[in-house]
Amino acid sequence: MFRGSQLTKGNEAKELYFCNAATNAFYNTDITPASPAAESIVKVNGVAPPIIDATLSDLTVSEGTLTPAFNPATLDYTVTVANDITQLTIEATANDAGATVVGDGLKDNLIVGSNPFAITVTAEDGTTELVYRVVVTRELYTITASVNGIGGTIEPEGIITLGHGESQTYTFVADDTYQIKSVLIDGINNQQAITAGSYTFDNVTESHTIVVSFELKRYTITASVNGGNGTINPAGSNEYQHGSNATFTMIANQGYFIEEVIVNGIKVGTEDTYTFTNITSNHSITVKFAQEVGIEDFKEIEIKVYPNPATEYVIIKSEKEINKVVIFNSAGKKVFENKNVKGEKLKISVNHFPTGMYYIDIDGSTEKMIKM
Question: Class of 56-138 per CATH?
Answer without folding.
Answer: mainly beta
